Amino acid sequence: MKILKILGLLIVFVCFSTTVNAQFLKKLGKAAERAAERTLEKKVEEKSSKETEKAFDTVFNKNKGTKKRKNKKRNKDILSLPKDSENTELQNNPNTGKEELSVYSKFDFVPGDKILMTDDFSLDNMGDFPSKWNTNGTGELVTIDNEKWFKLAGKSIYIPDLPSELPEDYTVEFDMLTVVDKKTSSQAKLELWLEDNNLFNNPTNMAKVEMPLCLFISIGFIVENKVGGERVIRNAVEKDIREILLQKNHVSMAINGKRFRMWVNENKVVDVPRLVPENIISFKLHPRNVRDGIDKIFITNVKIAEGGLDLRAQLLENGKFSTTGILFSSGSDQIKPESYGVLKQIAEALVQDSTLKLNIIGHTDADGNDQQNLSLSKKRSISVKNVLVSQFKIDRNRLNTEGKGETEPVDENKTTEGKANNRRVEFVKI
Questions:
Q1: CATH topology of domain 111-306
Q2: Which letter, b or e, does each residue of 388-424 get, where b requires 16 or more Cβ atoms within 10 Å of its Cβ?
Q3: Distance in angstroms (rounded) separating the CA atoms of residues 209 and 195
Q4: What is the pLDDT of residues 225-245, one digit of tens each?
Q5: Which of 7, 89, 319, 365 could cross-link with 419 by S-S, CB 3.0 to 4.6 Å?
Q6: Topology of 310-429 in CATH?
Q7: Given this model, what pLDDT does residue 54 score?
């Protein structure tokens, strides 16, 4: 009997132990599962953090390796031309600047020829709000790669000061940097507004484009307008810019009457023939649904200019025209690829009229030494000629070059807008 009792107790103990162990293992399994989930979440967060940190490194140049890559990329933003002596034109080299200019071969944007407002923030102090802008929120100037940038804040509206209301035909340009990550909202965007007031009132007439800032899904560009207080257009334009969001981009807009066109770098992303209503007088920027302190938006080199019409017609009808749309690196004769649209129209005029010959005249502002400005203006006119010859196959004997430095200003040299108008290239029929 004792043996049977002992065996019974052993069986009960074993059953109890098995039940307890099963419950323990079950709890352990759940704990392990939760731990695995936490580990997975941590890895995802670490990966996202690394991607964000990488974006910051790219923008702010935290290490030498990144800086070298950044500098290499920036050099591609300049149309490289062989060096030239002051009085000797380059020989016809079919490869001159070919790779850099060909990147913008689809770029048909032509900037306005009269500068209304321009701002590279060079006159403002770091950390300040820029003096040529108004806002209902906040913002500040920061330095990135030795260049001043205007850091925008979410939920704020930014309005540049203009000397007058916007004309019927005008262009808007600026450089843009963004720092976003996979957690940035799908509703994050930079809104570009054209409105019937220059304050912070709700407009009765307006047109806007919403530029997406989301990385994890393609949102496209939203276009919208209101006429007389009623929405007429709202639609999504399917353009995916996620691959370039974390790099420096050039944004260009051309408004000709009701027509609205927009480019990001060389690619046209919006072209709506009747988007812009009447009575539009102001341009505004508005970041929306961004995480302040995490998502970052910077702009610089803002330019608003009157014009942007067909330069070929002006040249063929009037025998001359002047443009501020051929851009050079500061103090240099290196042409930037954003100049492609203007150069293309000049080339088309020369092809259209095979008897047309042009004198290309370079002009500078009054900053710096008189003789250096004269030399620089000559070199810039030669650079323009060589691009027309090498890239557009224009006979070099149809093109003369001349530089006049600062001797023939068309505007005052006391403001950034005046200086920008004086830095121009003139084309005169011979």
A1: Jelly Rolls (2.60.120)
A2: bbbbeebeeebbbbebbbbeebebeeeebbbbbbbbb
A3: 12
A4: 999 999 999 999 999 999 999
A5: 365
A6: 60s Ribosomal Protein L30; Chain: A; (3.30.1330)
A7: 52
